[in-house]
Write a structure and sequence with these properties.
This protein is an alpha/beta fold. The chain has twelve helices and twelve strands.
Length: 323
């Protein structure tokens, strides 16, 4: 099995999607920068999530791909021109290490486009075992670990170093516990992950009565409509128009805390060190729940949606002493 260079100067990370998975990979950059401070670190990521690695000061260059969009338009010549340009960009640098922390066939195929020692999960550890055939060297990482720990352990095994115990997402934070705003992250990718609008309204009213102003972002038209419906029934609440991920990260970072369903934005709150209460209704948070640096809590689980009162009780340590 090929061995990794002792002091890699050029490192390429491959983690394309989804938003939460990309955020879970940020601590790998922090670990690599701590171990190899002179190394240049690039990152291949889906275009929709390219703003996330750009937030980390340890990333030199972000190489966007558009696998989701290309898949829908394979018959268009423009699509193949974009694919060719992306392949050339990925192959333009001689990397010492190309590390695929995603472990899918699609990420493995991207890894094969890069020049350098290609490293990834062994078949038993990968999410799609076939991906392991694309790597020059593979490593065993237990599937029972949280996603953040899996990413960090793979990188540590692949580049022969011991990571610190602390998790560092590497993002700047503007969090202030004196802030009087809180963010409701009500949107998610699946309807069964949604929390009832009545619960959001009742929780929002309880928080407004304690002197907090609620901000409700929304991305697409359905998400913005839901945010607007909820905000209408909460005093001093505001539905926020669609904004870039970088701007949304700043909005969340300035909040006293955030409450979110099973969505990548909840992980973004954790990454910018904003206290986050994550509400689970259709999935279990054990391996992919929010993992914060300071205060965070995962509430509920598959078939066990939390009640409004449970959410309010969980937030008590974060509430202002007086209205």
């Amino acid at each position: 099995m090929p061995s990794s260079p002792a002091n890699p100067a050029q490192i390429l990370l491959v983690k394309t999607s989804s938003m939460g998975d990309v955020i879970h990979n940020l601590p790998v950059v922090s670990d690599l920068r701590a171990r190899f401070p002179e190394a240049h670190i690039d990152w291949v990521v889906e275009e929709a999530f390219a703003d996330i690695p750009r937030l980390h000061p340890g990333v030199r260059q972000v190489l966007p791909v558009a696998l989701r969009r290309w898949k829908k338009h394979l018959l268009f010549p423009a699509t193949w021109r974009e694919i060719g340009a992306a392949r050339r960009a990925i192959a333009a640098t001689d990397y010492d290490v190309v590390l695929d922390t995603q472990g899918l066939v699609k990420s493995a195929l991207i890894t094969r486009q890069a020049r350098g020692l290609r490293l990834g999960y062994e078949a038993a550890s990968a999410r799609e075992p076939l991906a392991a055939r694309a790597y020059d060297a593979v490593f065993s990482v237990p599937k029972t670990l949280h996603a953040v720990a899996r990413n960090r352990q793979l990188a540590a095994a692949a580049l022969a170093y011991a990571p610190t115990s602390a998790v560092d997402y590497g993002l700047m934070s503007a969090h202030s516990e004196n802030s009087r705003s809180a963010v409701f992250l009500t949107a998610t990718s699946r309807d069964d992950k949604l929390w009832p609008e009545a619960n959001w309204i009742n929780l929002g009213r309880a928080l407004a009565a304690r002197g907090l102003s609620l901000l409700l972002p929304g991305g697409n038209s359905d998400e913005r409509a839901r945010a607007a419906r909820i905000a209408r029934h909460i005093p001093d609440a505001q539905a926020i128009p669609s904004m870039r991920l970088a701007d949304l990260a700043t909005l969340i970072a300035h909040a006293r805390f955030a409450v979110g369903v099973d969505t990548g934005l909840a992980h973004l709150a954790a990454a910018v060190k904003t206290p986050i209460l994550a509400l689970y209704t259709a999935t279990d948070p054990g391996l992919t729940g929010v993992l914060g640096v300071d205060w965070f809590k995962n509430l509920g689980g598959k078939g066990k949606p939390p009640t409004m009162q449970e959410a309010l009780t969980a937030l008590v340590p974060l509430l202002p002493a007086s209205a």
